[in-house]
Amino acid sequence: MVGGLDVTGPAVTRWGTIAVLAGLATVTAAHIGSPDTYYEGHAGPYPVRVIVRSPGVVPGLAAITVRILVPRRPVQIAVLPVFWDPRTQAPPPPDIARPVRGDSSLYTAALWLMRGGAYSVRVSITGPEGEGTVLVPVQAIATQRLELRPSLAIPLVALGLLLFAGAVTAARGAARESVLEPGQVPDRRDDRRGRIATVVSAIVLAVLLLFARAWWRAVDAAYRTGLYRPAHISLATQATSSGRLLRFALGEDAVRAERAFQWTPLIPEHGHLVHLFLVRDSAPSAFAHLHPVPVDSATFATPLPRSVVAGTYRAYADVVHETGFAQTLTGVVAIGSDASAQRGAETRADPDDAVWNERRQVQADSALLDDGSIMLWERGAQPLVADSALTLRFRVVSKDGHPVPLEPYMGMAGHLVLTTSDGSVFVHLHPEGTISLASQQAFQERQPGDTVRGALARRMSARGVTAMSGGGGSDTTVSFFYAFPKAGYYRLWVEVRHRDAVLTGAFDADVTQRR
């Protein structure tokens, strides 16, 4: 079932595909349906958790909270939004975060994001352990248009009428009495002149208001046109002698995105230019995490593993630009069965590729992995509540309960992908939260010479995989700092590596609304 469309086979009707695409288009954004930024890591010697609440409009005021995870209280926390511009030499002074009353470890601030695009929030901490700084990438995008509430509209209309009446009265008084000597009483001619001034000024002001209304509508229309809409990708499969090949290409809206959001060269995230996720149907019964490679500047391709079963899939492609702007592209693809699946063992085009198929009932707190080990979700007894930040912690044990040591997976302790059944939320989490490490690295390494398009991308591509810089758990556990954006049913896939094999555990979660 995809957005109300029953799809039981590999084929999908033209109208069904359009319906699914339309459903995705209404809910998509950077980290689809989850616009806030969550970070857990270190600012020098200080372990911190940073949350940036997206304003949803640009310009807009972002709310920032910083929690210090050590008992010793810092002297000062300063926050500064830094826009992507390698030529910036003298940024404005930072804002000082205020401590929250009743919680000595929590600080809050509000920062204006004035332009659409890639920002990083620079968090600087001064305290007993010295000084520390961390850059938290933030995508400043306008995703909504704020409506004028009646509680504000009515007072504004009343004030406007009062100003209109005051301006007309002032014009009448100026024409009727300003030319008179002190103490002189206006005569009939003066009254006539005042009435004419009243009518003329009212007409002039009305015309000016009409022009102002037309100007405001033009501004509003331009703002609506500029609302962020991720580019869609067109996907198709092709049968080859060795199996199935999946190709996707950037659509025409990518050209518009290039003009509006500076479609600059891509930089690698965990050693790959693209992370492509396939989620089957609205009841997510199959999942794949693949890594296509470029065919040309607008086309990518990857062989499909034999274990990817037939069906209709929602596709999400995570990419990061050299400006630090990270986004998720969306699409839909119908995948047919692999006729060669019975002729050989499973093959993966990339050792980091991962595939999960629902062979058994998904549990809420445990998952049997392909190698026979068990992944446990240490969720505790507390219910999952929307918009409540928490740590999602997972542990892997053997059949007899002994801890299973984990290896880095693409430079990190693990990865977590979560989605709702209707696709209104899709998030790719790292142990450091929702941020892109490639975006963070782009801000850290930008130089004045990087104003040349592609200079930073070439330098970062030559470096390879970025290792994790903090958080993530221990050798046998992996954890993720996050808050579910809304109530509903979620499917979670947790990816780890053991003995050079990628293992995926799936869990279901029922998130309730905050009371």
Task: Kindly describe this structure.
The structure is a single chain. The chain has helices at 14-25, 150-177, 188-225, 253-261, 437-445, 455-463, and strands at 37-43, 46-53, 60-68, 76-83, 95-96, 98-100, 103-113, 117-127, 130-140, 233-240, 243-250, 275-280, 286-290, 293-296, 299-304, 311-320, 326-335, 354-357, 366-368, 374-377, 384-385, 390-397, 415-420, 426-429, 477-482, 488-498, 501-512. With 515 residues, it is of the alpha+beta class. It has four domains: 1-28 and 230-358, Immunoglobulin-like (Sandwich), CATH 2.60.40.10; 37-140, Immunoglobulins (Immunoglobulin-like), CATH 2.60.40; 150-225; 360-432 and 468-515, Immunoglobulins (Immunoglobulin-like). The chain has a five-stranded antiparallel sheet with strand order 1-2-3-7-6, with no helix packed on it. Strands 17-16-12-13-18 form a five-stranded antiparallel sheet, with helices on one face. Strands 21-27-26-23-24 form a five-stranded mixed sheet, with no helix packed on it. A hairpin with a 6-residue loop joins strand 2 (46-53) and strand 3.
